[in-house]
Amino acid sequence: MSKHNHGCCKPHNSGIFGERTELIFAVLSGIFLLAGFILDTFSELPFIYIIIPYLISYGFGGYYTLKEAIEEISHGRFQIDFLMLVAAIGAALLDKWAEGALLLFLFSLGHALEHLAMDKATKSIESLTKLSPKIALRKVNGDYVEVKIEDLKIGDVIRIKPNSAVSADGILISGKTSVNQAPITGESIPVDKIPVEDSDKKYNSVADIPAKNRVYAGTINGDSSIEVKVIKESQDSTLNRLITMVQEAQEKKSPTQLLADKFEKYYVPAVLILIIILNFAFLVIDESWQDSFYRSMAALVAASPCALAISTPSAVLSGIARAAKGGVLIKGGKPLEDLGTLRALAFDKTGTLTEGKPELTDIVLLNGLSNDDFLRKVIALESSSNHPLAKAVVRDGKKRMKELNGIPEAMNSEAIQGKGIKGKVDGDLVRIGNLELYEESGGVPVEVQEKVKKLEREGKTVMLVRNNEEFSGILGLMDTPRKAAKSTLAKLKKIGIRKMIMLTGDNQEVADAVASEIGLTDAYGSLLPEEKVERIKQLEKEEHKIAMVGDGVNDAPAMANSTVGIAMGAAGSDVALETADIALMADKLEILPFAIALSRKAQQIVKQNLWISLGVVALLLPATIFGWANIGIAVVFHEGSTIVVVLNALRLLGFKDKYSSV
Question: Closest by alpha carbon to 360, among 448, 276, 475?
Fold first, then answer.
């Protein structure tokens, strides 16, 4: 994620007031500016007393600007920071203290607020590293010894305790479990894992290892203790690759920033050279040195890019403030500007387009059993399991029953890893699971198999229920789309988003089913984080700019490599929120059209402000050089253009989006 600024070098996270020192200095600059202006306008005090608050305002407003200017000059660079100081000093020499102090106040305030927003990006790596445990239990001569994960070698065997994070990428060699892979792959439902048949088998590549035997560092083990054989050292794990991807993406500078840096590099020294030359105009034309100095100061005021420097930050700050009021956190000017230029959006599925949790969507009765009688036995048996799917069946099954009384207790329940569960309910043997559960007991009739496969083609997780020797029903579960997803995508299409793509770790059938239901243009399933990144890069080549909307750690690299990364709020992980450029704070997808419309309006106002500020300089500079405009006119037009661009930017605070009620 590139850091966008208007001449700043880096955030200032230390000072007398801690991390907020820069902002507090800017506010104090404004307070003393106001005090000086009031004394100057409404009192009859001697000027020596009036100048004191202006000097203090200069000190607070120019402190960090001076530090940055000195640092830039020491590296042989000139930026707008330096010219702001020269302009402020020039204003003071011309006895225009209020104008100089206002310049430094607005410039320092813009720096401080943008730094506060952009500082959050630096926390992304810290959030990522918290996912992985620092200690692993390595098996040594039959015993388990605590070691640092950095000390693990390929081939080591480690133990993973129930409900704890997996320490390293590896293959399962002992124990059966369900693993929550959402932090890495984004899959909405925990994945069943079984041990590999031959733990000594050599694979040509990691990709050849069956998914059912492989685990990732940073994922969460289920209720069983397992043993894992390490296949990657700590620095090469999937989690560490995510960290590296985010770091690389954050270090890339945006084209906008590079263009601004290039402009400042040449504009500032050119203006300074011009001002110096004008001081010697008396050698060429018939006038005194004082007149030449006056001409050069007038030209300095005319050429000082105060309105130019404030035009973008004022619009950005107004846009950010309006967005926050509408429930959108925008981290700086670049994402605010870029969001409005987008014509393509990529979405993660789980927790972004969907609710992020499985729901019971289908109940198919097979043998004439009533709905309540069927669910009573199902709920009784599933209540004995801690599996997320079982909990969803119990939760939603109770809602579908007409009467909740009389749910029996299951006896001798037994989980069959990777297949389902069985147990006694009211003396009947009840089995609930996938088709594989029944392979050893006579199989499943063709007509029942067709009904199961039909639901699977719709992207659902299907469980078949057998009561004694008779199949009694089918359960279908799915991570259902958000209620607002379909209408939100329709609004996005109305405002000109022509391509809406889903990237997900779930299988292609699930991806296609969700895409068809809510109106996406394309869907790509079974993607690992690095594959999402490759897909984002490909889409960016095709569309030039693309946003990635996600909520999990697995989305972080794709979000960081997109033009704009957008994170869902409450359901989103810390790293996604920190890595993203924009966060939907209320976890409402329906706010997205408002954010895009606001961005487009902000971009329009930025362009207007740039034309105003550059236009005034283009007209005023020749006028002062040729003596057609004096300092008074230069100050009026210079400060007037600053006020105009700020007022124009403030219009964003009242922005209303016709496509939403935000």
Answer: 475
Catalytic hit among 348, 506, 581, 657: 348
| b/e per residue 548-585 (b: at least 16 CB within 10 A) | bbbbbbbbbbbbbbbbbbbbbbebbbbbbbbbbbbbbb
Give CA 329 to chain center in angstroms: 10
User: Are 473 and 366 in contact, with CB atoms under 8 Å apart?
Assistant: yes
Bridge partner residues of 582 (DSSP): 330, 566
The structure tokens listed for 606 are 């930025």
Q: Is the pLDDT of residue 619 over 90?
A: yes
Bigger pLDDT: 255 vs 450: 450
Q: Report CA 364 to chain centroid distance, whole Å.
A: 41
- Which residues have C-beta within 8 Å of that of residue 379, sequence separation ≥ 6? 393, 394, 397, 398, 401, 407
Residue type (1 letter), 595: A
348 classed as catalytic: yes
Q: Which helix (H) or strand (E) holds 523?
A: strand 522-524
pLDDT at residue 639, as a whole number: 63
Q: Are 549 and 502 in contact (CB under 8 A)?
A: no
pLDDT confidence of residue 103: 72
CB atoms within 10 A of CB 188: 24
559 is written with which tokens? 């979000």
Residue 576 is predicted with a pLDDT of 57
What's the confidence (pLDDT) of residue 645? 81
Continuous H helices in 279-402: 289-303, 306-325, 333-339, 371-382, 388-400
DSSP 565-592: EEEESTTS-HHHHHH-SEEETT--GGGH
**Token pair of 200, please?**
């000594």
Say how many C-beta atoms besides its own lie within 10 A of residue 79's C-beta: 24
Q: pLDDT tens, 487-507? A: 999 999 998 899 999 998 887
Please name which of 326, 388, 379 lies closest in space to residue 594, comparing C-alpha atoms: 326
**Residue 113, H or E segment:** helix 97-118
Residue 456 and residue 357: Cα distance in Å, rounded? 17
The CA distance from 310 to 649, in Å, is 10
To which residue do tokens 């320092």 refer? 108
HSE (side-chain half, CA atoms, 13 Å) at 161: 7
Nearest one of 250, 29, 5, 226 to 116, comparing CA atoms: 5
> In angstroms, how far is the first alpha carbon of the chain from the final one?
28
CA distances in angstroms from 134 to 149, 179, 258, 578, 606, listed in the order given: 6, 19, 39, 22, 47
Instruction: With cut-offs at 50, 70 and 90, classify the pLDDT of residue 578.
Output: low
> CB–CB of 505/527 below 8 Å?
yes
Q: Is 634 helix (H, G, I), strand (E, B) or coil?
A: helix
Name the maximum alpha-carbon separation found in the chain.
Answer: 115
Question: What single DSSP character describes residue 186?
Answer: -
At 128, the amino acid letter reads: L
Beta carbons of 363 and 343 less than 8 angstroms apart: no
Question: Taking phi first (over 0 means left), then psi (-120 to 50 degrees means alpha), and beta for anything else, what does residue 446 get?
Answer: alpha
Residue 120 identity (one-letter amino acid): K
For the CA atoms of the chain, what is the radius of gyration? 32
Q: Structure tokens of 599?
A: 């961005």
Contacts of 158 (CB under 8 A, 6+ apart): 136, 137, 138, 139, 152, 167, 168, 170, 227, 228, 230
Query: CB-hemisphere CA count at 13 Å for 425?
Result: 28
pLDDT, mean over the chain: 82
Nearest in space to 529 (alpha carbons), one of 231, 244, 232:
244
